[in-house]
Amino acid sequence: AQSVTQLGSHVSVSEGALVLLRCNYSSSVPPYLFWYVQYPNQGLQLLLKYTSAATLVKGINDFEAEFKKSETSFHLTKPSAHMSDAAEYFCAVSEGDTGTASKLTFGTGTRLQVTL
Amino acid sequence: DAGVTQSPTHLIKTRGQQVTLRCSPKSGHDTVSWYQQALGQGPQFIFQYYEEEERQRGNFPDRFSGHQFPNYSSELNVNALWLGDSALYLCASSFFGGEETQYFGPGTRLLVL
């Protein structure tokens, strides 16, 4: 079974400050890991993914995440927050190396607030 | 290149009724997955369809059923609706045997009264 824990349901940062959203996973098989963003009343947009290649993954809008197997973590960071980054962020895990996209198990989400 | 589309965008039903939600996958994709997202929660996997058959299923009762058509589009059916079925229903598509990413549609928001 797989699971995802997102520490902090709400995170508030000032515009221009570092963004750090935490994600820890549990998986009995080598995982694939994803970060999705959800703006109000919209679906999910993929930010970045880890699929057993480079452990430091770069995504859209200057977001990046580092896969740390020893810590079972996949934290999301962005050097400088922008007002447009305010949204809900979801970390998700799936079984890797199945040859296709298997079911995603999501965390409960972190709402990012960006203040002036 | 059209992305994943879903219809309708919003729906209101009463308890005990049945509902059908529809999804068209992203161009070139042949696999459709459905997720339920309750308010304030992360999405929960319902099931996945490939080659018109249910390939994987999450922990949802038999009241939730689906179908995939030869053109890869899909329907999600929910029978005997109850209040707890109120949620955003998300469809995601992918290419079987291809990259591991699922691309999501905008969702259908279902309210059960």
Can you give a write-up of this model?
With 116 residues, chain A is mainly β. Chain A has strands at 3-5, 10-14, 19-21, 24-26, 31-38, 44-50, 56-58, 64-68, 73-78, 87-95, 105-106, 110-115. Chain A contains no helices and twelve strands. In chain A, the strands form three sheets. In chain A, strands 2, 5, 6, 10, 11 and 12 form a six-stranded mixed beta sheet that branches. The N and C termini of chain B lie far apart (37 Å). Chain B has strands spanning 5-7, 10-13, 19-24, 31-37, 44-50, 53-57, 64-68, 74-78, 87-94, 103-104, 108-112. Chain B is globular, with a radius of gyration of 13 Å. Chain B has no helices and eleven strands. Chain A binds chain B through residues 4, 32, 34, 36, 41-46, 49, 51, 90, 92, 94, 96, 99-109, and chain B through 4, 31, 33, 35, 40-45, 48, 50, 56, 58, 90, 92, 94-107, 109.
Question: Uncertain spans of chain A, ≥5 residues at pLDDT below 50?
Answer: none
Distance N terminus to C terminus of chain B? 37 Å
Q: How much helix, percentage-wise, in residues of chain A? A: under 10%
Content of β-strand of chain A = over 45%
Calculate the mean pLDDT score of chain A and round it: 93
Mean pLDDT of chain B: 95
The most extensive contact between chains is: A-B, 27 and 31 residues
User: How many strands appear in the DSSP assignment of chain B?
Assistant: 11
Order of helices and strands of chain B: EEEEEEEEEEE
